[in-house]
Structure formats: C-alpha cells, structure tokens
Amino acid sequence: MQRAPSPALSTHLQTIKAFVQRHWLDAGRNPQTWCNALRIVGWTVPHWPIAQGGCGWSELQYYHWLQCCIRNGAPTGDHLSLHGIGPLLQVELEASLDHPWLQDIGQWRSTWCLAVPDPLWPAEQPLSLLGSPGNWCVSGTVAPVLGLLQADWALCLLPAAAKDSTQPFALIAIDLTGPGVQRRGLAGLTEVSAVDHSTPPSQGELRLAKVPLPASTWVTSAATAGALLNPLRAFAPALDPQRISSAALALELADLAQLNGENPDAEADVQAHAQLRIDLLALEVLEQRLLGLSPADPSAKPLALMQQQRAIELQASITDAQVAALGYYLLPFEDPIHSHNEGSVGPPLARAKVAALLESRGLAAAFDSVAAQHSEMTTLLGLSADQSSHKDAKKP
Amino acid sequence: MDFSFSDEQTLLQDSIGKFLQNDYSFETRQKVIKEEEGFSSANWKQFAELGWLAMSFPEADGGFGGTAVETMIMMEQFGKGLVVEPFLPTVVLVGGALRIAGSDEQKAAHLPGIIDGSTQAALAYAEPQGRFNLADLTTTAKKSANGYTLNGYKAVVLNGPAADLLVVSARTSGDQRSEDGVSLFLVPASAKGVSRRSYPTVDALRASEITFDNVELGSDALLGQDGGGLAVLQQVIDEGTLAVGAEAVGCMEVSYKDTVEYCKTREQFGQPIGKFQVLQHCMVDMFMEHEQAKSLMFMAAMRMDEGYDAEAQKAVSAFKVQVGKSGRFVGQSAVQLHGGMGMTEELSIGHYFKRLTTIDTLFGNVDFHLKRFGSL
Hints:
Chain A has helices spanning 7-25, 31-41, 59-71, 79-92, 100-106, 222-233, 241-244, 246-262, 267-291, 300-326, 347-367, 370-380, and strands at 112-115, 128-130, 137-146, 153-157, 171-175, 181-185, 203-212, 218-220. Chain A is of the alpha+beta class.
C-alpha cells in the first residue's frame, strides 16, 4: 500500500498538469482555445480506444486527467455524449468507425440527448412509426428529454414493433435541426432556468411530425436495442464528474469556506465544515479504491454504487451549507441595490447556489434516488436472491 | 494510490484469519474472558511464536520491520475475532513508546521481553480530570537525589492488572495543563509505592486504577527527554488510535455480515426478514458505513507510514471520527436487526456492539477528533 504514484503515473500527472497550465490557465481560461488545443493533441476523448479516435488511456490515467481539469475549471466535454452515447455508438457502428456521428462526438462538435419515452409521463401523442419499407417516418412526442435544448442529436427509442412488422430498426438518431422537429423547454419545480434566467431549461419536450427515417439514421434493431439501452437508462446526468467527483466537490467546499470566512459564525459551523472535509476525503479514497478493482471483483459494483450515492449526498450537504451561509441572500433578488455592500455574497452568487441546490435535488430524485440505489445494492449484497428459510436458525 | 497488499502482508492477514477460524471461536473467547487474567497466556505465547508481537519493531531491535499498515492488518483481523489478548497496550502503546523514545539500553532491557511474550505492559496516561487532553496531568515526578519521585493517580489503565512494566506520564515542570514539562517514565509494576485496583471493562477487557505514592525511580527510568514527553505520547496515542480504529473496522465487518446472514435465515410473517425493504436498506447503510471507515483507515495508515506530521494527525483524526460514527451506527443497527437476540450474552453481536461503543471513547471521541481535525 502506498499513496505515492508509480513513476509512469507520475510522468502522466506532470504532463497533464503542464498541459492544463499552458492551454487553460495561461491562455486565460478560454473554452475555444482549450478545445482547439485538445483537438490538436488528440485529448478530446482520451479514454476512447485508439482505433476509435481516442488515446487508449487507462481508467486511472483518465481519472487523473478529469480531476486535473475539474480542479482548474477546464471543460471536459458533454458527459452523456462522451461516456454514454459515444461508447454505445462505437459498439453498434463497429463496421464504420469513421462514422460522422462518432467523429463529431469525439471532437466535441455535437451533443446528444436520450429520447426514451417515460412510462410515468404519458405523452399526448406517443411515438408511432408510419410508412412502409423504404419510406419510413416517425411522429409523436417524447418528454421529458434531458438536455434537449442544448443537443444537436437525439437517440430515440421507437415503440416495440408488431410481430408481423418488417420494421428493421428500433433505435434511431434524430437530427434535431432537421425538418419536422420541434423542441420546447419544460419548466419544473426544480428547474434551474426559473432561477438563473441565462440557462435554458434542462429538460424539454420533443415533437416529431413525420420526420423521415432514411437508413442512415437507423442505429440498431429491436433485438439489440434493449441490451444497448439498458446501460444508458441507468446513465444519470447527476453523475457527471463535473458535478460530483471529489475534485468538483472540493471546489464547492472551498467556495463554502470562503462564504463562511466572510461571515464567521459559531463553532458549530467550523465542526460542520470539518465533517464535510472528512466526507470528501473518504470519497476521494473510495474513488481511488475503485480504480484498483477489476470489474469482475464482486465488491466493485456495490462500491461503485456507494461512491455515487455518497457523492450525491455530499453534494447536497455542501449545497445546503452554502445556502445556509448565504442566509437571506438565498432569495434571488433582482434588484442589485440589495447587494451593494455585500462583497461576493450577492444575488449573482445566490442565484447560482440556489440553482445548484435545485439541480442537485431534482437530478438526484429523478435518476439516483437513494431508494433505487439501495434496491440495486441489496441485490448485489445477496439479499433479494432466493433465500433458505430456517426458522429461528440461530436462536440459542 | 495503491491499495494492494504485498505478498508478506497478505500472508500475515491469512495467518491471523486462520488462527481466528481454527483456535479462536466465540465460545473459546467467552471462556477466556471469564478467567481472572482476562486473556489466554497460551494464545499470547502463540502470538509470540508466530512473530506477531515482533511485527511492528525495527529489525535492529529484533523485530520484523513492519509499518503502520502491518499493524492495521493485524488489528483489523483481531477486531473480527474480538481478540482480548493485550496486543494494543503491550505492543502498540508501550512498545511504540519504547520504539520512538527509548534509549538503546532501555530498548535492550524491555523490547526482547515484549517480543518473546514474557513481558506484559501498560500505558498509564489518563487521569480523571483530563478527559482527552494528554497534557492535563496532576501526577508529578519531582527530581530527587537518585532520580525522580513519582506521585499521582492514573485511571483506566488498559492491561493494568497483568502489566509487569508501566509507561507513566507525569509532570516534571509547568502548570497542570501546560504542554511543556510532560515526561514519560518506565516504572516496574512491582515497584514500591505502586498500588492497583483492577476491574473488568464493559467490553470484557481488564483495566486498573493505579496510584503512585512516593515511587522512587532512577534517572534511567526517564523515557525520552525531561519535559519533552508530550510529543512522544501524542504519537503513541495516534498510533494507538489507528490500531484501535482498525480493530473497529474488523468488528464492523463481522457485525454487518452476521446481520445479513441472520436476516436471510430468520423468518417472520412467512418469509425471511431479509426480504423486508426497510431492513434491506438498513443493511446497505451498514455496508456503506463499514466501507467508508475502511477507506479512511487505508488513508490514515498510508499517511502514518509517510512520516508523523500534521497531515498524518489529521488523517488519524478523520479516521477516528468516522469510526465513532460508523461504529455506533453499525453496532446499533446490528442489535436492532437481531431483535431481542442481539441483547443476549450467547450471541456475539452484542459483544461486538460493546467493543465498538468502547472504541468510540478510547483516545478521543467523535467530538474531540472532529475539533482536532478542524484545528490542524
């Protein structure tokens, strides 16, 4: 056991630190300059296999790359596209690795969203397939679709085909700028845009009106769509490392320390802050423990779920503490006169913090509720399997 | 970070695991704790023969050159078996004090006995008024013609009843709570003026209240520098905190796993109680609390091996905070999920709970270490 990195990892750490320093910090934190530098060196998707445009970095190398970027505020690309849909397309489009979809995702030129009907959200007009072989088109609505207004493409699941159907596909790609496509934002109780007016709603409704489906938009058939989509269904935007990795939470904690520092309060605040730092330390170690486990290790999956849950809980706790530190500036004042002598604690910061609070609650509830995580973990821990029933087996 | 054990460390872990499985059943332990000494001399001898008592000492002192990680491995295993043999007071605390501050002569005089199992030792540092402040001392050691004269009172000295050798903290100068002027002394338990009142603790260990009444010590009894003992004592206590925390992690693992097994077999309303969702969620929380403590245990052990500094102290305090919180949750949940059976003497689960509860207060509780972590 040792904390010090191996010589190879140490070299990697030095390389990535120097890169971030030169192309992000020294370049004035310019996203375009950063993106160009990444494209030149080929690090937009370093975790992808070399054959598919990546660098074939190990999980450990990529973890440290993300941590380094996040700590310094450098963009790391769209989470769902790079870690969810991109790898899915790699599997399904194996025969054509130079496919423009993959190239665009890999170069951060396009962003994707997932348009899968939600059984709990009855659509006005469910998706339906029209036409005949050679002349397919689709109509209907899907909601809610996360990231719809920011995306260029949607990966869309069509309803199950009838037994006698000749429909050769179930998973399709919809060009969101194409004809027949309409998008509108959906406001919600936890909607960030209601607080931060510069941000578009994070979710929306997708309306398709006779959108043609040429063969080039077919991703896969019904036979494999389910297996492909299952990992994506569990893919939670709330788990974006930009939000909940230990590096991201360390930044939030530093923010909290600054807020508390401007208005030093009781010893209870100091103790609460110390507790958050301990939780963060534990999360960081857990992340690193996971990197050392092979996927076949039986403890890997429960620990991965635990890491996600702890991270979401910690994010919520830090946001709570930030909101408490903001006090009455929690209210998103529009009039700047209310904050004329409050330094950094003013409406802009308050709006951002309230937005983060709502976002964390909303996303956690929608995708990673504690109950859902617990249920999966109970299965992994062997509690849901068939169990022998020896009544009072251990009674002395 | 590399969390893998070396081959030697895995061997050590396995050998203790096998010993516990074959020779240290819960029933055997229950018999041992009822005896007057409170532990098995035969087991202690076997620990020495297997080299476990030598593990933490440098090779130059007759040990195997083990580090904090080896101690962590051993203590975690001991926690799984609720081992009552006095490894913590004799090897970790007193052995640690000798390793850190002992002169060559002092090491030569005492370490061989600790390593071969013939010497039992105890660290007498706590006083009733001191709470967790190591510098709060009313025990004094005044300079005399031949050395020092020791007077005072020490509370809850673990392994006090069996100890042949005591390491005692006493004030040689300064005020009652001054950080300067604390010194450590090696005191034979049989010295004139030493009296003990011994008792079993709630977790079935043995401890003593020890009074020192004009105990005459030679100048060679001073361990380390005169007045500079607090730093040594703090390091020893931090090493002990890591060790006892690792023991708690072992206790938590067994408590959690035994509870899962019990809930799979115990039936109520026509089905195993493990099928009830509320209980399942509770067991998942137990799993997570155990793993959270384990993560911080690894961090603390690695930090201690890098050198004893403020960062190592912080890591130890963070670990102890987590151990206090997790231990309480896991122990209480295990008892709750076992129902009334969790309260019985015959079932091990209540004994793990008692040990976990004691560990929470040993060397500083959650509040103390949280405050310390924040101040470092």
